[in-house]
Amino acid sequence: MARRVFFSFHYEADIWRAGQVRNSWITKVDREDAGFWDAASWEAVKRQGDEAIKRWINRQLDGTSVTIVLIGSETASRPYVQYEIEKSYEKRNGLVGVFIHNMRDRYQQTAIRGQNPLDAFWVQQDGKKAYLSQMFSTYDYVRDDGYNNIADWVEEAAQRAGR
Q1: Digit-coded pLDDT (tens) for 28-58
Q2: Could you tell me if 159 and 120 are in contact, meaning their C-beta atoms sit under 8 angstroms apart?
Q3: For residue 42, what pLDDT is reported?
Q4: Which pTM does this prediction carry?
Q5: How far is Cα 32 from Cα 137, in angstroms, rounded to an integer?
Q6: Which ranges constitute the DSSP H helices of 72-138?
Q7: In angstroms, rounded to a whole number, what is the distance separating the alpha carbons of residues 77 and 104?
Q8: Among 22, 7, 160, 152, which Cα is nearest to 80's?
Q9: What is the torsional sign of CA 47, 42, 95, 147?
Q10: Looking at residues 110-139, what average pLDDT do you find?
C-alpha cells in the first residue's frame, strides 16, 4: 500500500539530492509501485515569515502518515527541519532518516555526512529517555539502495508509529 509522505530537508543545500529521491517514483511503473505519494509542493515556500512557513508545513503534513527526513551536511541544525520533525511526531507520523550526503549533486559532488537530527529529539518511555533515532530507523540512500528500498523503509516507519 502506498503511503502519503512528507519530505523534510534543508532546502538551500539539498534541493538537488532531495529532488532525486522525491522523483524516484517516476521510473517505476506507477506511484503505487514506488511505495509512496509525495504530499509536498515542488516549489519552495516563499519567504513570508516564520508563522506563514509553519502554517505551510502544517498543511503539507495533513494527510501524511510518514515523514522522511533527508539528512544532508547541515540538516540537523535547520530550525524548520526541527519543527517538521516535532510536528510529525506530534501527529504520530512514522519517521525515517535517510542520509543523502553520498548522492551526487548537480556538480557531481558528494558532501560530508551530517548529524542525524533524530538524535536531538527524545520522549519518555517506561520512565526512560527514548531518542527518536532509537525508535525509528535511519538509512543511507546510496549504500542501502534507497531507490529500490525506500518503499519498505516508509512502510516500516508507518508500522513502528502504529499507522
Answers
A1: 555 554 444 544 443 555 557 788 889 989 9
A2: no
A3: 38
A4: 0.88
A5: 22
A6: 79-90, 132-135
A7: 21
A8: 7
A9: negative
A10: 96
Q: How many residues does the chain have?
A: 163
SS3 47: coil
Domains observed in the chain: 3-160 (3.40.50.450)
pLDDT value for 9: 92
* Cα gap 40→8, rounded to integer Å: 9
Q: Find how far residue 153's CA is from the centre of its chain.
A: 11
Q: Where are the beta strands (DSSP E) in the chain?
A: 3-8, 36-38, 66-71, 94-99, 122-125, 128-131, 138-140
- For residue 98, the tally of other CB atoms under 10 A from its CB is 24
Contact 88, 61 (CB under 8 A): yes
